[in-house]
């Protein structure tokens, strides 16, 4: 294929159509509409981490991460580059309100000779901003089909679907003059030559020529300054095109723009954020975690479901013999497969998961999430995190198990490790916190402030320690602020449903296996051995031997440990120390299962051991002081 050649533009059976676009252009919504099926739709940069595929007529439609270009500057660009190089056609989704930004990627695709059709999305928002774009003129300038769309309302989608078969690229490109500087014996397609003159290392390595790849695997071309020349040339072309097709009518700032300015100003944004975070905590931590979950556990499961299941199993199975261990595994009081396990999944996790995804959906669709991240970024930087980590910390007060999953949105692997460790160590879940607050209320307000102070100190010291000891560097918060908008209920509800379904699909098998393992351990007397082994450890924190039973309950579920404290005849100081210890103690079984799934076995084990050390170290120190 010469540099003038392009691939056949018609999408036939067994061919691939890739959706490509910058973050927050509505690409995932377009994907869902074109494929006539719903996928996860986000309004937060970088949330399309994995590619998604669906049938598209006789072809395959592939969604890609949101990127600003397809040179290999990060993992998302590398993934997108590979998909584009293999695709038969590309639907390039462009934000009509950010035409000057998004056309850079469009021209890169066209320079590569990729058959393309442009979906000019968010035309309604462009109109609201006083922006008028001549789509016909833009199509003439680019030389490829351009279809105006409002994907969230389905406008223009049918026309876009019809015009995918017209995807094409110009016969030649204005950056061909840089192709002449490539070695004569380089055998590469037009797409590869475009990436080569942009200094793309993996492409240089793929063409496998010593004249292209310098010592150490770094392309010699990257040192010639061609990347800057090519990018500068492309940027000027974008400006020329935009100047000819776009006109703007000046309008007053909208309410969304004014509110966004207030959010980004620390003086006004901080109180707004505190009110918002307080509202999130109240909704997830009080309304859902305490009231709804409490009703489900106490009334639905405690009075109806569990008794019925217990009676049914007992009536169906013999009282002794082979049925005894089976019955114990199915309906035992700690983690019975048909009773407590179902209660945890349906009565505890399901309401919390739905509530969390509902709140996150509102924050994403409204544009609030990245603004919260910007506002809290400076404080979190001090413990090796960036502003994205604020969400797991908030969710952790509702449910640490759920919060571990949300660490997926946090920067790199190092930051996810720090976030997960802090969640498992010093963030009490709402069910546990509610019982602790009740116990501390009987001690006096000063003990409540002391409890919070200890947790904050541990959180800060642990964060600083992890930041200093873990290899690598934290990533700065680099995020685009999408426009503020009123969230769309239909989109939020569909998003919540699909995310919840995906979570349950992953979680139910894990919880089932965990329940069986715990039941077997308890049936063979393993719990009794553990309780006796823990008895000497309680002396380290100045607590009596019966505190070992509380710790054993905490291994299964944190609020069980807090509840176990309610019938202990402890002094004021012993109660305070005990509450601190059970808060810093190991995450519950379900949280540990998710930590193991989200991180790795080594990290999970180190976090588990570390929580023992911190809990008894801090508890022992408090016992000496008090």
UniProtKB/TrEMBL annotation:
<dbReference type="InterPro" id="IPR050860">
    <property type="entry name" value="FeoB_GTPase"/>
</dbReference>
<feature type="binding site">
    <location>
        <begin position="21"/>
        <end position="28"/>
    </location>
    <ligand>
        <name>GTP</name>
    </ligand>
</feature>
<dbReference type="InterPro" id="IPR027417">
    <property type="entry name" value="P-loop_NTPase"/>
</dbReference>
<feature type="transmembrane region" description="Helical">
    <location>
        <begin position="335"/>
        <end position="363"/>
    </location>
</feature>
<keyword id="KW-0410">Iron transport</keyword>
<dbReference type="InterPro" id="IPR011640">
    <property type="entry name" value="Fe2_transport_prot_B_C"/>
</dbReference>
<feature type="transmembrane region" description="Helical">
    <location>
        <begin position="383"/>
        <end position="405"/>
    </location>
</feature>
<keyword id="KW-1003">Cell membrane</keyword>
<dbReference type="GO" id="GO:0005886">
    <property type="term" value="C:plasma membrane"/>
</dbReference>
<dbReference type="InterPro" id="IPR006073">
    <property type="entry name" value="GTP-bd"/>
</dbReference>
<keyword id="KW-0406">Ion transport</keyword>
<feature type="transmembrane region" description="Helical">
    <location>
        <begin position="507"/>
        <end position="530"/>
    </location>
</feature>
<dbReference type="InterPro" id="IPR030389">
    <property type="entry name" value="G_FEOB_dom"/>
</dbReference>
<dbReference type="InterPro" id="IPR011642">
    <property type="entry name" value="Gate_dom"/>
</dbReference>
<feature type="binding site">
    <location>
        <begin position="46"/>
        <end position="50"/>
    </location>
    <ligand>
        <name>GTP</name>
    </ligand>
</feature>
<feature type="binding site">
    <location>
        <begin position="121"/>
        <end position="124"/>
    </location>
    <ligand>
        <name>GTP</name>
    </ligand>
</feature>
<keyword id="KW-0472">Membrane</keyword>
<feature type="transmembrane region" description="Helical">
    <location>
        <begin position="575"/>
        <end position="596"/>
    </location>
</feature>
<keyword id="KW-0408">Iron</keyword>
<feature type="transmembrane region" description="Helical">
    <location>
        <begin position="446"/>
        <end position="466"/>
    </location>
</feature>
<dbReference type="InterPro" id="IPR003373">
    <property type="entry name" value="Fe2_transport_prot-B"/>
</dbReference>
<keyword id="KW-0547">Nucleotide-binding</keyword>
<keyword id="KW-0813">Transport</keyword>
<dbReference type="GO" id="GO:0015093">
    <property type="term" value="F:ferrous iron transmembrane transporter activity"/>
</dbReference>
<dbReference type="Pfam" id="PF07664">
    <property type="entry name" value="FeoB_C"/>
</dbReference>
<keyword id="KW-1133">Transmembrane helix</keyword>
<keyword id="KW-0812">Transmembrane</keyword>
<dbReference type="GO" id="GO:0005525">
    <property type="term" value="F:GTP binding"/>
</dbReference>
<feature type="domain" description="FeoB-type G">
    <location>
        <begin position="14"/>
        <end position="170"/>
    </location>
</feature>
<feature type="transmembrane region" description="Helical">
    <location>
        <begin position="272"/>
        <end position="289"/>
    </location>
</feature>
<feature type="transmembrane region" description="Helical">
    <location>
        <begin position="605"/>
        <end position="625"/>
    </location>
</feature>
<protein>
    <recommendedName>
        <fullName>Ferrous iron transport protein B</fullName>
    </recommendedName>
</protein>
<dbReference type="Pfam" id="PF07670">
    <property type="entry name" value="Gate"/>
</dbReference>
<keyword id="KW-0342">GTP-binding</keyword>
<dbReference type="Pfam" id="PF02421">
    <property type="entry name" value="FeoB_N"/>
</dbReference>
<feature type="binding site">
    <location>
        <begin position="63"/>
        <end position="66"/>
    </location>
    <ligand>
        <name>GTP</name>
    </ligand>
</feature>
<feature type="transmembrane region" description="Helical">
    <location>
        <begin position="417"/>
        <end position="440"/>
    </location>
</feature>
